[in-house]
Target: Riboflavin synthase subunit beta
Amino acid sequence: MGFGGSVSAMLAALKNNKRERKSRFDNKGLDIKTPGHKPFVDFKKLNTSEELKLKNQIREDARQHQRKVIGYTAIALFILGVIIWWLFIDSGRPLV
Model:
């Protein structure tokens, strides 16, 4: 059989490409100390008051993010409207 070299090369490549699988629950590789990184929270170990505080914090963060998105969208639409208005006024053609 003439395919012995290609099969052995395939097996060697598969062996070399293996990596250690990391899970979210393994703490080995998840100890990242960056400013934007939030530590993993195990919800099963929280008592009710901590869980309530965490839920309120998540809701407040989502509310602030939604306000930012709405604000930026409104500003972008206003600028787009002004640009379109300026182009039609500058061209001399009526808008209708």
Remarks:
- The first helix runs from residue 4 to 16.
- Residues 4-91 form one domain.
- The chain has one domain: 4-91.
